[in-house]
Amino acid sequence: MTALDDLAAIPFHDADAPARARMLSRLADTQLIVALAADPVSDDVELKLFPLEGGQVALACDTEDRLAGFFGAATPYAGMPGRVLAGLLSQAGAGLLVNPGQPSEMLLDQSMLAWLQTALAAAPVEGSAALTLRAPAAETVAALAEPLAERLADLRGMIAGAALVGAGDAGESPESHVLMIAGAPSEEQPAIAKALAETLAFLPPQPGGVDVSFAETAPPAFALRFDLSIEQATPAPARPKGPPILR
């Protein structure tokens, strides 16, 4: 099982839109092994394209063994992140078949790859504002908690903490939400903000949107906090060397 398989409890083409979006988000950051028409020459690669009813598609897997297993033998390949491959295929006017015969099998046509490219183009806009913080909406927590936890887990070691809060004064529900990030070095903040903006672009839109804030102030008690601690393996209890000696 791979990271893509873990998200495919329901097959991609049977899943609802949020589940498909989460798989595509993970696909963008997955190192894919894509079949080539011939061995690469320097940095030039020629993707092996297969004719299908809807047009030509490239074939990629998330492990070398899966690609070799599909062909029944070793085949020329190149490794590249899904986001890079999606860009190449958009230029070539081709689709993408991922992990055929596996739990995470997906067939992405040109329209799906175009949507993926649009989501990956999401970028934060820097700004400042004075906000009144409040508890996040239950609906927003239900929609964002799990996928945000997965993405924030990728940032362990780069940030010290994260919390989701609501913002706004009027009404029973927050007008918007803020994802508070603590402990991020200033030089890393643009890259972290871009990664989180991409993640949010793949998730169901929330009323008023979700902003990303870098602050060292402790989140309020009503915030939804994300546990970024690294789990330590519990050492096994020492085994006795032998039965006790009875005297």
TrEMBL record:
Domain SseB protein N-terminal: start-end pairs: 15-115
Domain of life of the source: Bacteria
Record InterPro entries: SseB_N (IPR009839)
A family per Pfam: SseB
Name of the featured protein: SseB protein N-terminal domain-containing protein
Species name: Paracoccus zhejiangensis
